[in-house]
Amino acid sequence: MFNFGTSDGQALYPSRNNIGTSNGQALVSINKPIQTVRNNINDIKLDQPKNENEVIDFFEKEHWPELEAKKFYNHYQGIGWKVGGKTKIVDWQATARNWILKADELKEEKTMVTVSQNTDNLKISSNKNYNEPL
């Protein structure tokens, strides 16, 4: 039968320098080996376009007007190519596609607001005579 936990000291192993003459403390590394993993996104730097023409070309491929490309470029150039003022853009083309999607949503919302403003929900006349008493 084994007798565990009866020793008062630490496990000691001979040191490498003085094998057999001196006892040293058992050293075990708690650090794991560092592995360098390369990220494909970081290998190809896409965080910002080279110039405004590159953005215009991208928007033209997506069938969007040059004016919208200039708005996108000027906006992100002005805020240092960051999202929310904090996070650096990793892929500007993905950010541009999101810009396009948001522009579509804004167009839809604007048309819905215009339609609701043109309808007369209260069924009142728009020709009012303020000289007549209530």
Automatic annotation (TrEMBL):
<protein>
    <submittedName>
        <fullName>Uncharacterized protein</fullName>
    </submittedName>
</protein>
